Model the fold of this input.
Amino acid sequence: MIRSLVLIFFVLGFLIHADEWKPIKSVSLHKDQLERIVVKSGKLKKLFEFRWTLYADNALVVLRSYDDFVAQHVLRSHYKNRNFRVALLSKRGAHTMPPYLLVTFKHFDFKEKQALFDIYLSDDDEQVELKFLQETM
Done:
């Protein structure tokens, strides 16, 4: 009985916050092809870039950079670790969530040798504007 109540509250909480992410773009990238996004907030302008470098054993290695911070992620399309999150601005208030991007690895196309990603934006206060730059090899 208690498990059922916990499950119901968990599902209700998820449904309340289900609109937190706004899908903004789906991207299909070849190896080492960059996806570049300019993030603007007031006078602030930063560049977010990511690309994948290796797909082996059902795992995709992704390199990303934002605001002079470089990171590497190993993503798997059928497991929990299939996405990464990038905070776009620093936290300003105790009760506000800073805007962030969530990049999700959807699947790998073996025929085309491309990885498919969905990019989501969480920005409740509409603090940022995104501009997608032309993809380059």
User: Anything to note?
Assistant: The first strand starts at residue 22 and ends at 30. Helices lie at 2-16.
